[in-house]
Amino acid sequence: MKTTYPKECEVPRGWHLVDADGLVLGRMASRIATILMGKHRAIYSPHIDTGEFVVVINATKVKVTGAKLDDRMVRYHTGWIGGLKERPAGKVLREKPAELITLAVRRMLPKSRLGRAMLKKLKVYGGADHPHVAQTPKTLVDPS
User: Fold this and answer.
1) Is residue 101 part of a domain?
2) pLDDT, tens digit, 9 for 90 and up, residues 113-132
3) Residue-range definition of the domain harbouring residue 104
4) Mind listing the pLDDT tens digit for each residue in 48-88?
5) Strand 73-77 to strand 84-88: parallel, antiparallel, or no bridges (unpaired)?
6) Would you say residue 89 lies in a domain?
């Protein structure tokens, strides 16, 4: 028996649609990260990007449990000395809901070149409309 590894050019790419309306942020993000990495497929290999594309709609209607909207801070650094900026998660959800979902998914992906390539396959939109209708994405009814 020989072990066969998939070649990146031979991996079929599918599209998935996730409606974030009423879904819990962390549970949804972990399921999305699994699809982006390709761990839901039999051809998964950790050193090759075997994942599929994910389109998230209704990002403004995602649920965050507990008091995390007020307590949790979203931090970033400008690169300058003393340049640590932080905003409450509730404010980020109101102003840029796609950023909050992207950040949650990004932290669940590998911290490498491969992880950055996987994140490029994530498309997040605040409303119900998206420009990827031509790809006919499969709707994930329960991403948890």
Assistant:
1) yes
2) 999 999 999 999 999 999 99
3) 14-65+97-128
4) 999 999 999 999 999 999 999 999 999 999 999 999 999 99
5) antiparallel
6) no
Q: For residue 56, what is the domain's CATH number?
A: 3.90.1180.10
Q: Write down how long the chain is.
A: 144
Note whether residue 20 is domain-resident: yes
Cα(92)–Cα(59) distance, rounded to whole angstroms? 12
Cα torsion 60, 72, 117, 37 to 10°: value is -90
Q: Angle at Cα 66 formed by Cα 60 and Cα 67, nearest 5°?
A: 85
Q: How far apart, in whole angstroms, are the C-alpha atoms of residue 94 and residue 120?
A: 23
pLDDT digits (tens, 9 = 90+) for 30-43: 999 999 999 999 99
Query: Which structure tokens are listed for 42?
Result: 């039999």
